[in-house]
Amino acid sequence: MNDLPGSTSGIPSSPVGASPRRPTRAAVVGWGGKSVRIGGGAPVVVQSMTNTDTTDAVATAIQVKELAMAGSELVRITVNTPEAAREVAAIREQLDRMNISVPLVGDFHYNGHKLLTQFPECAQALSKYRINPGNMGGGKKRDDNFAQMIEIACRYDKPVRIGVNWGSLDHELLARMMDENSAHPQPRDAQAVMRDALVVSAITNAQRAEELGLNPNAIVLSCKVSHVQDLITVYRDLSERCDYPLHLGLTEAGMGSKGIVASTAALSVLLQQGIGDTIRISLTPEPGGDRRREVVVAQEILQTMGLRAFTPMVVACPGCGRTSSTVFQELADSIQTYLREQMPVWKSRYPGVETMNVAVMGCVVNGPGESRHADIGISLPGTGEIPSAPVFVDGQRTVTLKGDGIAQEFQSIVEQYVERRYGAGHPNNYKGRV
């Protein structure tokens, strides 16, 4: 048979999936019996940060618990005043009493060296320190303050993230690099020099930390900027010039869809290229908004890219003139919410359930096909279609639902399927049983 125009018959297909992960050192962040490995081939770690006042130990512990239960594997808290530093140990104690072993990361800036020295119980209760070299003074003062923090990290055997930020870059380093660039026969534009300065600052400070005695396997680097293309360029450069694990995140990403889209665009490109070992989605929450949203977005980026699985995924059509009601929208929303809420229990009770796919479709056009492709799916009736909803389990049509109780019946079918396929005594490769 003749090949069609443009056919690739006989030509090997392109590989599907992200590039192999960039080889890095491995940093271990732990508390009690829990250890989180960053880099060294470990799965990409999801982390987040509280926005409570750390001096309110109860409120902070509650939010840390909420973030951890949502799936944040590390949680960062602000440690900016003596009053905040004094409460860190109490926050850790409250979390331990609640059996929440998520490691805490202390976020330090201008006075971290003083706070860690004055409050050794804070230094001990934290599992990792975040250091921003650009906010530690200038000249010898900066060097001394940085050395003091590294000495404390060595004393308590704590890993550190050396986090350079576009908005607080070392002014002396940047001025020197700008002067050198101006003297060059073909100077680069200022943005390019700033990007290079971020990378140079991160790497030179990491090397300085090693010289001060910090274990090379206790260092994570980040170079945060607020524009997508700048972030991609900076991290590509950084990944080529060092083998430290990298923390990805678009700083000041914004709120709502803008923050989600910008973060997704930047991080997806880098993750697809094998760059990045831990991620944080820095969303500005709407007034009264849920801080856990940034955890969900981080998980969904990794899961939709096929890098990790956190919770069963729901496929649902967008709706159009063929869909006659909002039933499928309401069912898709309720099923997705239900599945995510069940995961804290299901994660240990039903190993592998996080890889399950569920389809909730709104008419006959793509409904049956998408439902067959999913582990379990339902095709709801559209405009002018017979008022019935066929359910497909592992590609086979098993039952047709009718009436006002479709949502409740379908949720019950999902629960039964999870128990049969992933429950104790049943192999996870269950297929074809109803």
Automatic annotation (TrEMBL):
The keyword Nuclease does not apply. Residues 1-12 have a biased composition (Polar residues). Binds 1 [4Fe-4S] cluster. Transmembrane segments: none annotated. Its EC number is 1.17.7.3. GO terms for biological process: isopentenyl diphosphate biosynthetic process, methylerythritol 4-phosphate pathway; terpenoid biosynthetic process. Residues 314-415 form the IspG C-terminal domain. Keywords: 4Fe-4S, Iron, Iron-sulfur, Isoprene biosynthesis, Metal-binding, Oxidoreductase. It comes from the Bacteria. Belongs to the IspG family. This is 4-hydroxy-3-methylbut-2-en-1-yl diphosphate synthase (flavodoxin). It comes from Pollutimonas subterranea.
